[in-house]
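Example record used in the benchmark description.
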Amino acid sequence: MTNDVPESEQSLVDLVLELADADDQLSEEVGLIVLAALEGEDSLSDALDSETAAANARARVESKSTPDPIGAFLDSITVTGFRGIGPKTELALHPAPGLTIVSGRNGSGKSSFSEALEYAVTGTSYRWNKPSKQWRSGWRNIHHASPCEIRIRLAVERDQPTTIGIDWADDADLDAPKSWVQTAGQKRVNGTESLGWGSAVDLHRPILSYDELGGLLEEGPSVLHDALAKLLGLEQIADAEKRLAAELKPRKEARTSANTLGKSLMLLLEASSDDRASKALASVKGKRVDEAAQTATGGGHTESEPLRSLHSLADLREPIAEAVERAVRQLREAVSGAADAASEAISIATQRSELLDTALTLHREHGDMKCPVCGAGDLDSDWRQRAEADMSDDRDRLQDLRRRKVALTAARQDAANLVSGVAQASEVDGVVLDALEPYQRAVKSWLDSPDGDLALANHLESMYLAVTESAKALREEAAAEVAAREDRWSPIAERIVEWVTAERKAQVEDPIAKRLETAKKWVTTNARNLRNQRLEPIAVQAREIWSELRHESNVDLGPITLEGVNTSRRVNLEAQVDGEPVGALAVMSQGELHALALALFLPRATMPNSPFRFVVLDDPIQAMDPAKVDGFVRVMSRIAETRQVIVFSHDDRLASAVRQLGVDVRVVEVTRASSSVVQVSEALNPAKRYVKDAFALVSDEKLPDDVKGRVAPGLFRMAVEAAARQVYYGRRHMAGDEREVIEAKWLESKTTQQKIALAIHDDRTANVSGWRAQRVHRTNTMSICGRGAHQGAGVLNRDHTRDLEKTVNDLLESAK
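Model output (structure tokens):
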């Protein structure tokens, strides 16, 4: 971006990028968030989720290129089946600098051309963005729903004529048309992006309707601020602030919610007698979420000693009945098998067996001989047979004795294990358990086992029941205490888990919120300077235009600045009334406010670098007094020297002012017949146009009679008043009266009868009953104009409209 580009015309994103790069206090991370916020909601969301996405946002901003905008005049607007226009109707225009007035009463289809142009150029309409759904419900013409299409033919600089097309399929919604652009001799290109008008539509909006004109200054200071920012091309930075605020809000709410939950949780923990509460309290104060979660759910090693003891007692296990019975039985059986003598018998049998084995070995190695022990017996083959038989018997007895000894040892060990296997129980700190002492006594008795196997068996058998019953009682009491504690702890644990969830979310969002807060503050601070720097050249032009529009107004416009942020944002419009400083909006009339809105709109719409060589205004003078209408015509005439200016208006004062000021202008008349048939032609006499409309309305067989009775009287009244106005204005101008005086007297006449009195007698208080009574058709017509306009005229027919036609002709003839 070169330095010689005026700040008011330099891309806002480029300006912000330069400011961000030049700010040493702004981190790159926050700077990328700022750029992403300028780019759009999705880009900002992606940038917050990923550093790569944030860097990509900068790359897109730096590399983004758009086609050179096309400079164009309007050649024609053709509409079919859209809004108030049914069959295809073309509004032909002169594609060159100059002023064109498109005139037509309300409901003529005039504004349908304007809205069609607005939709084709901007993709929307100010009216349709209103909260009321009625503006969006009738976009497709009721008499000619298909085809529904718009064609805008452009005379393009340095190129062939180009057409913008908008087509709706029969089942398409308003927001789902097919748009295209086609240059003569070339193929259609889908969409309208090839025009290069994307940002220009916002920066140099060329179309302004009466609704938008009024809303610009009437919908509150923030609405005016935002509208001006948009007209200045600053809506991007306002949108960025809103996006940052929208992203920041839930993240700040996450921290606020976590802190609120934490404060109430700490009070709850401080009041709890549960020994876990103190540990949880420390975790919450330190924002140690994992530790707090473990305390709440019992995970890790977070249980207190008393609770662990209670859990142990609740899981207390006594000896199994079958095991006790088996141990007692086996012990008694082992004893009854004379297992006590088994040790001595085994010893003797073992020694005898060893002695015989030695003798047999001696005999086997040395043969027959005398017994070396007694010297009397012979160790021969007979002896050997007897000895071997004795050896076999000894082995059998020895094996049986050993088996009995093992059984006794095992029975004794099982019994001993049963005795020692009973768990002892200690007191639990801070907990009184009634079943504890009986259990401790039972265990003590159980462990105090007697000597002797049979005595031990009897001991086990007699003491088992006491241990079992006391253990069961203690187990149940401990379990009940655990359950009671858990019942008291459970709500607290739930609160801890709730806080943990909120705090975890807040801890994730905290660093993002910090970056968003910094980005938002940076945007807000720099936006204030950007706004007023870019506003100043526009404000100078606005004051110049106001000086022309303010004809006969004592309000002099001073500096214009944008101030405030968020809900306090506003436009500071300084003014002077008779040299005294005041706030402009507070002292301006409705007409002055509309004139001011125009003064703020026109400079931006007519900037030299705007691709739009046309400015379109829809009903801009509705609230202006005659003097300001004259000023408006002068301003439009001057702008028309370099721009194609098209003014849609139902106000006859505009055409009158044009004629009085001798402005070079083209006037086009738009009229509507039944079934939404719209015609474009040179202007007809306004009074006769209303008569024609009344004929069409009454003749429309599709309309119910009650609707005709409510609507037609308004047309009758407008026809008579238009005729009276023409007669009065023409005569008084011929008499040399000033326009302002003529207009003032006319506006003072509130009723149809007063306006007829002006037309006939130049006196709104004059009695016109004689004139009225001279002809029956006058009496009938005036009756419908008076009573019918407010109460309904009943069933009307063509005879009534013929009476109207005669009455209007009578008035017009009176001027001759």
